[in-house]
Amino acid sequence: MKIAVVADVHLHDLHGGYGMLEEGGGELALRTLEDTMASTRVFNESYPAFIAVLDDIVQRGIRDVVLLGDYSDDGQLGAVSAVKGVLSSYEERHGLRFFLTFGNHDCYGPEPRHQAKRLTKADGLQPVIVTSDENADETALIRSDMRGMSTLEAMDAMADYGIAQPDDVLHWETPFGDSDQPKDRRPAGSDASGLDASYLVEPQDGLWLLMLDANVFQKVGNVWELRADAAWDYVLAARPYLLAWITDVAQRADQSGKTLLAFSHYPALPLALAGEGDAVKAACTPDWARRMPSPESGRQLAKAGIRWHFSGHMHVGGRIELDGLVNIAVPSPVAYPGGYVIVNADSDKVDIETVRLEAVQGYDAAFPAYRAQAAPTGDRAFSDALAAPNYPSFLRAHLQSLIENKHLPEDWPPEFRAVLDTQIGQLFDVDALGLTERWPQFTPLPLRQMVDDFYFLRGDGTTNGLSAEKIAFYRDLCAGTMVEESVKTSGLQDLIRFLELFRALVR
Ligand SMILES: [Fe+2]
């Protein structure tokens, strides 16, 4: 039994027209390079990357595809319509079937939400704001299909992709029974924020896919806010019936010999952990720590009987385990390392293969526009990205730019950043740690190299990207009980903190 799992496609509708181009005229509506480099995903490349993923799935003879949420750019009516166009085409031409759940960019709870984006034509010049908000500045283009969907609208729009009961599956149910009508899919007495698009589906004999809607909305003032940070903490608190249903599903799966795989947009465990037993805690940078659930949420899901959970949201790959629950972080096609996951589940064995995108035809369609935008700035990150000879290199340059311009300033204080160009051997007492003798080739490296490696390792979710020797050096540096005393520069507690986070990635 094989399925593909695709996370965070974030499809930007290149062909939408948006009131500035003739629809279907062939000219592309593009996000700017500046916006791209400031985001944790690339935009204009989402369409060719999604096509490359789907072609690869077809070529491997896989039929069933899970979309782990954030399938659209930001839930705009137009972007969702473009997603449906792609899905229909692969259903009709290749017989693929799609089962999806919602992410924080697909729908906005009881009320829709205005969206606004800066778009250019193919020449890359004079970007204009396109928005659904009629009260926007008069220079903006007003387009009703830029409006982000409510959850009810999304359930209706995506009904054909598992949200409503499909014709050709062996079993389908929701936490509330077997009705697929939205009116029957919320707890008795709840308001529209209680809508829950979760479902269980058996697309292949013996394979149960538990698709969990983990979008919890809470009203703050007049606005419905989505609890996307630490989402599973909110899900378990706000939807107590869900854990009871999961427990029941897991027991039935066990009794009837079904392989149960669970999916939601958000991590069920912190994606990096430190400590043992009751002392297990997230080992993440501040931005990640804020977004991760508590280990306790993962423990509750493990206790309910989930063994495999697949998450998106963070746009990274990886695998983390606690109390028998394995959380597979599925990489996005539109952020480093760029890929998706194949699950091979035969009887008791579940194999996970991460596929990395290599050739993506047309990934550089926006490059002429980018060049026009980059030339006047002279920005090195921009020119590095534009020098990329292929899609993986482009994603690598994109992450490198994010490290320098976003992650480093947001994650680390000035004192830490001030020593980035200092050699590791000068920051730590590498003689006392025995590293000079063992790893003479690595101790002269600047701290910056290790920091870069940290963020790339975090994106990969594996240590495969670095040589075994370098990983061994980093493990030795992070592991020693003497590390704290060996920090040469006084007052740099952040160096210790950095080594703790690094240790969690290579342990
Ligand atoms: Fe996303």
Average of per-residue pLDDT values: 94
Small molecules held by this entry: fe (ii) ion
Mind telling me the C-alpha Rg? 23 Å
Q: Give the low-pLDDT segments.
A: none
Taken from the alpha-carbon principal axes, the silhouette is: globular
Strand order of the largest sheet: 8-9-10-13-16-18-17
> Treating each run of at least 4 consecutive H or I residues as one helix, how many helices?
19
Offer a concise description of the structure.
The protein is an alpha/beta fold and 507 residues long. It has helices spanning 33-38, 46-59, 77-94, 151-157, 159-163, 231-238, 240-255, 286-291, 295-304, 367-374, 380-386, 391-411, 414-417, 424-427, 435-438, 447-460, 468-479, 483-486, 493-506; strands spanning 2-6, 30-31, 64-67, 97-100, 116-120, 128-131, 141-142, 171-173, 199-204, 207-211, 217-220, 223-226, 259-263, 273-274, 281-282, 308-311, 318-322, 325-329, 339-346, 349-356. The protein is 36% helix and 17% strand.
